Amino acid sequence: MSHRVLFLRRLVTLAAAGALAAAVLGATAPPAVSTSAATAADGATACDSHASGLVPVYGLTLPAHGGGLAEHDLATTFDNSSAVVGGFDRVGYCLELDGPSGPQWVWTAMPSFTKDTRQLLPPTKSGHIVRQRVHDLDTASNVAGVPTATGGTGYLEMWPNSYGPANARQIHGSSTSTFDSDDTPRTDVGRGSFQIHRVSPDPLSGSAPSTVLAVNGLTQVYVLPIDVGIGNQPTGNPDWT
């Protein structure tokens, strides 16, 4: 059977046992739900039209500030991971934010990059590093600059480490001096990156990379605001660092 997983400042992970799975990443306060199970209504998001057939697996409200989370599990508002105990083969994220001009949301989905549902959440522990291309990337958003598209190529930058702008030359158009779609994690756990980017299929040519969503700073040493954004940051570093 094919299984798929989805994600929400509410980060809600969705999945369908024996058939579909999905995970949702968002920014409004989540509804009160049971920690043992969740219905489709409990995980309702602005992305629902793009994630039909998916059920919530995790709920997570992103904190306003980082600090104190390194080497600790993120507290979830509900855990229904037993719904996908048989596995999953596709993952989606829906990030919902209260933007300056009203609600903002972004949806993205891709083939699964892990068999462990906990590895779908933003990394907070040493050794949890995901730095890889993904194919069959879907995106949709109400934020200008993020296209409604299917079948694209993506690049994941997910780690609890601090990081620098030096790149591995994996992504055409990435910078060696600006934080963007191809940065390099350092050895220490001390900032954290949870980023998904649209990139060219060819590392040597093609369109410029663009950020789909970013959640940075969960594991930083000091209690400072985290960085959360949809699309490229209009000024400064495109990945919201």
Helices and strands in order:
Elements: E1 4-6, E2 11-15, E3 22-25, E4 56-60, E5 78-79, E6 90-99, E7 102-111, E8 130-141, E9 149-164, E10 184-199, E11 210-216, E12 227-230
Parallel strand pairs: 1-3, 1-6
Antiparallel strand pairs: 2-3, 2-4, 4-5, 6-7, 7-8, 8-9, 9-10, 10-11, 11-12
Short description:
This protein is an all-beta fold and 241 residues long.
Keyword list:
241 residues, mainly beta, 12-stranded mixed β-sheet, globular
Q: What this model shows, in words?
A:
This protein has no helices and twelve strands. The chain has 241 residues and is mostly beta strands. A twelve-stranded mixed beta sheet has the order 5-4-2-3-1-6-7-8-9-10-11-12, with no helix packed on it. It is globular and about 40 Å long. The N and C termini lie far apart (39 Å).
Number of helices: 0
Sheet having the most strands: 12 strands, mixed
Total beta strands: 12
User: pLDDT below 50 for ≥5 consecutive residues: which ranges?
Assistant: 16-42
Overall average residue pLDDT: 82
- The main sheet orders its strands as 5-4-2-3-1-6-7-8-9-10-11-12
Computed structural class? mainly beta
Instruction: Name the helicity range.
Output: under 10%
